[in-house]
Structures are given as C-alpha cells and as structure tokens.
Design a protein that fits this description.
alpha/beta; Glutamyl-tRNA Synthetase, domain 3; seven-stranded mixed β-sheet; elongated; Ribosomal Protein L25, Chain P; binds magnesium ion; 14 helices; 27% helix; binds adenosine-5'-triphosphate
Length: 525
C-alpha cells in the first residue's frame, strides 16, 4: 500500500484509463536488478495494482544473446518477489520472434524497410550528417532476399542489417532510419540456435507492447527522443495505440547504474559479485544492511519526478537507520589491534554474569542478554590512549572508575582502574565500552566497513569511469565481541555500541569468525 499515499500526494495519474490499465516492466536479462530498475518496477506496479486495479506484465526483453543469461533472468524473478512486486504475467520478447519476423517482412514489402551493408562507422557518420545510405533505394525483392540471408546467418546476411525507412535527415536523430534487425550467431538462452538474427529493442518494443495489450508504457526520459519513433512503428504497422509516460532515471553520486558497467566491475574482480555490499543492486544494498521496507520507502519518496537529479546516499541510509535503530540489539566489541588489558583493583572477586536488556529502550520486549563482569577487562586502544592519570571515566552500563595506572605507552598494553560506582556518570567526559574476559568466552568477528566504489561524485559521460575506481573501498578489523553474538543468524542487524550498525553476513561457528558488515547511517564521512 506504500506508494498509494505518495502517489496521491504527487497527483500522479494516467490518461485514458476507462478501459483498464496494463503496464509492463521490461528488464533485459543482462544483469541483476539495481535500485534504478526498482524505481521503474515500483512505478509500473503502483499504476497497475494500486491506482487502477489493472494488470502488471513482467517482460524479459531478451533479443541480444551476447548479453543475456538464464542466471540473470532467475535473479530478476527472485528479486522482484523479494521486494513484494507480483507480476500478473511473465512473457519474453523472444516468444514473439516469429511474429516479429513476419512484421519485418511486411515492413520490407510495404517499402518501409531496407537491407543495408554499410559498415557501422560509416552508418553512424551518415546518420549524424543526414546522408542517405547508398542502399536506401534497393528493390523489395533484393531486400527480402538479403533478409533471408540474415535469417540463415550466411556470410552476406552477417554483413547486413535491416533499417526502417523513416527519415534521412529528421532533426530528431532517433528518426534517422534506425536499425531494426541484426544478426547474432550466439545461441540464445531460450530459443537456442533457432534464430541467427534478432529485432532491436526499438522495433520489438512497440510491437510487443501492442500485441500484449499494454495500455501505458512507462519509460525513463532518456527515451523521450525515441517516442516519435515508437509511434511511427505503431502507425506504420497499424497497431493498437499505447500511451507513453516518461519518468526520470534515478542516479546516485559515486555510483554507476548501468548493467554494462556493473558487469565490468564483477568481471574485473573489483567487487566480489553482483551481491557485493558496495554494489547498487537490490542484492548489494540488502547485503549492506538496507531493509526491504526502507528501500521501498525511499524509492517511493522519489515519486514520478521528471527531473534527473543525482542523489546523495545520505537520505538513503538515513531512512534505513530510522527503521533499524529501534529493533537492533545492542552488543559490544573491542578491537584486537593493540587491545588494552585493564585490571580493576577493587573489582568483583568472582567473574559472573547479569541479565541485561538487549535493547534498553524496548525493555522486556527486546529480550535479554548476559553481560559478564570480573576484575579483568579489555578496552580499545583508541579510547585508552586519551586517558589521563587519576581521571574519572565511565565504563558504559556499569559505572565510573578512576584511572590509577597506565603501565606502558605507545601503544598502551595495561592499565589499572579503581571502580568508583558512587561517581556521577553524567559528569565524566569519557564513556567507554569494555568487555570482561570472563566468565564466558569472547567471540571473534571480522568487521567490514565499505566505502563508495568511485572517487568522483558525478561521473560524466566522457569520463573514463574505470580511472575513478576507489581502490580502498573496503576495510576489515578483527574484533572480540560479547558471548551473546554466538546466537546471531545471517541477516540479523545489530548495533555494536559506539561503533555503529552491522548486518550479520555469516554467523560464527565451526571455528569460523562471525562476519559483520558495517551499515552506513547517512552521516557523511
Ligand atoms: P542498464 O543500463 O542498467 O542496463 P537499461 O535501461 O538498459 O539499464 P533495462 O533492463 O532495459 O535496463 O531496464 C528495465 C527498465 O528499468 C526500463 O524501463 C528502464 O528504463 C528502467 N531503468 C533502468 N535504469 C534506470 C534508472 N537508473 N532509474 C530508473 N529506471 C531505470
Ligand atoms: Mg535497456
Ligand atoms: Mg542500458
């Protein structure tokens, strides 16, 4: 029900909805879904399911075997399910290859398309300059014969493409005889070797939209120039009309949202995979600790704006923090790098545990954990190195203590503290986390923190984006955690006091450490 409120306040509406609304989300199975795709999927879902009680189609736009894979298709289905989007029907552009072939023959026979063996560079140049191809006036018979060569994937066929005869010099370059069919000999993940040529998106999309009964086609604004071309195909082939509705792409700073570029990051081993916590994929942001609820909320707040803005990650993570803060159990960790051993001279003679709330503000409802107390504690070097002789400090959730001895310096290895529980915790300047070395055994954790993948805020089209890859986008420390973390499961979200929020990537067990991923909170670093 999320978008309906936002939708109403944005005054979103479609025209001509009396006879029902059919929208479609048309991903190409050439990568995992990123958060930009999610915006497109959620808008289509909103119109179809919430505002007009219509139909949402999921259509795989699968006409380029060079880029597409079953793995991607499967992941898209799973991810949509995960975010709660339920398409009423799933289809494939490749289901329509025979029909599209017939439509292309019709285009050729009616003089609306021709075969062109002009090489790519020349074709681009001619289109830029508005020069007609030398093949533009070939006869229908010649064109049909070449189209059959293309269908067979022959040598002649491979040299050719079919172009729509729209215009040579229309000021809108998208109208300058776009390519509608090209050869590809790679096996297709669904149709195998049946086809050696495939329609382009420009040609297939309007036809399949019309055939599948789509009433409203939502597209990002970078396609606006191609709307007249889409219309031209519907008119020329006398197909049912489809309304176009444009919305803005979503962009983020220090981020690429293009499957082609994301594929490169994966293939080059710059990230661990499509679900790497640094990736802007649905899987990546989840693994980084974004909840589905916060993700949906954030995207719907963007609404249907047509202004392309490059967003900061601050609000994205701040909306997540609001969601996780009230429910994240509190735990404690101490860095194993230069850990300081503290002896409490007047501490409890016997190590023991006490039950404490896991989430103090939630009381009983948040459950309890066991906190160990003894004469022997460990503390973070970073904290202790600021201590002064005879200073009164606070051991968090215990009470005050006076620093009696700092045994060696740089780094400090040992200190002596004298408990001073009557002291006022409000009056101390330093409040530190600590762990008792007994009675329960402390549990080691790999604690990861991640940064942006790119060093430049706004990557421009002309930038060689590979030059701006952040080589230090991850860091790891080994920390000891309180014994309660032994019960954590994958995907649990916790707070390590004074250190931040973390998602459990791998639970502790079988001699392996707990693996925690730091969750950004929206504060700028
Ligand atoms: P990519 O460059 O990531 O492959 P695409 O547009 O080529 O993007 P498709 O699989 O064709 O990828 O996209 C499916 C739908 O998602 C399309 O309707 C497309 O317009 C939309 N979409 C893609 N990227 C974004 C984005 N950054 N913001 C909003 N919508 C997007
Ligand atoms: Mg696309
Ligand atoms: Mg793209």
């Amino acid at each position: 029900a999320g978008l309906s409120k936002a939708g109403a306040s944005y005054n979103m509406a479609l025209q001509d909805v009396e006879k029902g609304v059919v929208t479609r989300f048309p991903p190409e199975p050439s990568g995992y879904l990123h958060i930009g795709h999610l915006k497109a999927a959620m808008l289509n879902d909103y119109f179809a399911h919430e505002l007009y009680k219509g139909t949402l189609l999921l259509r795989f736009d699968d006409t380029n075997p060079s880029k597409e894979k079953q793995e991607y298709e499967d992941s898209i289905i799973e991810d949509l399910k995960l975010v709660g989007i339920k398409p009423d029907k799933t289809s494939y552009t490749s289901d329509h290859l025979e029909v599209l072939y017939q439509y292309c023959i019709r285009m050729i026979k009616e003089g609306h398309a021709y075969a062109d063996d002009t090489d790519q560079d020349t074709m681009r140049d001619e289109r830029m300059k508005g020069i007609a191809s030398k093949n533009r006036s070939k006869s229908v018979e010649e064109n049909l014969a070449i189209f059959e060569e293309m269908k067979a994937g022959s040598e002649i066929g491979l040299k050719n493409a079919i172009r729509a005869k729209m215009s040579v010099d229309n000021p809108n370059k998208a109208m300058r005889d776009p390519v509608i069919y090209r050869c590809n000999l790679l096996p297709h993940h669904r149709t195998g070797e049946t086809w050696k040529m495939y329609p382009t998106y420009d040609f297939a999309c309007p036809i399949v939209d019309a055939l599948e009964g789509v009433t409203h086609a939502l597209r990002t604004t970078e396609y606006t120039d191609r709307n007249p071309q889409y219309q031209w195909f519907l008119d020329t082939l006398k197909l049912r009309q489809v309304h176009m509705w444009d919305f803005a792409r979503m962009n983020f700073i220090r981020t690429v949202l293009s499957k082609r570029k994301l594929t490169k990051l994966v293939d080059a081993g710059i990230v661990w995979g499509w679900d790497d916590p640094r990736m802007p994929t649905i899987r990546g942001v989840r693994r980084h600790g974004m909840t589905i609820g916060a993700l949906r909320d954030f995207i719907l707040k963007q609404g249907p704006s047509r202004n392309i803005v490059t967003m900061d990650w601050t609000n994205f993570w701040a909306s997540n923090k609001k969601e996780i803060d009230p429910i994240a159990p509190r735990h404690t960790a101490v860095d194993t790098k230069d850990t300081v051993k503290a002896t409490i001279t007047n501490g409890p003679t016997e190590a023991h545990t006490e039950d404490k709330f896991k989430i103090p503000k939630a009381g009983d409802a948040g459950g309890k954990k066991k906190v160990g107390y003894s004469k022997h504690l460990i503390l973070d070097q970073e904290d202790v190195k600021l201590f002064k002789q005879d200073e009164e400090i606070t051991l968090m959730n215990w009470g005050n203590a006076i620093v009696r001895k700092i045994i060696s310096s740089n780094p400090i290895t040992d200190i002596e503290l004298e408990l001073h529980l009557e002291g006022d915790v409000k009056k101390t300047e330093k409040k530190v986390t600590w762990l008792s070395t007994g009675p329960a055994e402390l549990i080691p954790a790999e604690v990861w923190e991640f940064d942006h993948l790119f060093t430049k805020d706004k990557l421009e089209e002309e930038d060689n984006w590979e030059d701006f890859v952040n080589k230090e986008s991850s860091s790891k420390t080994i920390q000891l955690c309180d014994a309660n973390v032994a019960d954590l499961k994958e995907d649990d979200i916790i707070q390590l006091e004074r250190k931040g929020y973390f998602r459990v990537d791998k639970p502790a067990g079988d001699g392996k450490p707990l693996v925690l991923f730091g969750i950004p909170t929206g504060k700028t670093k």
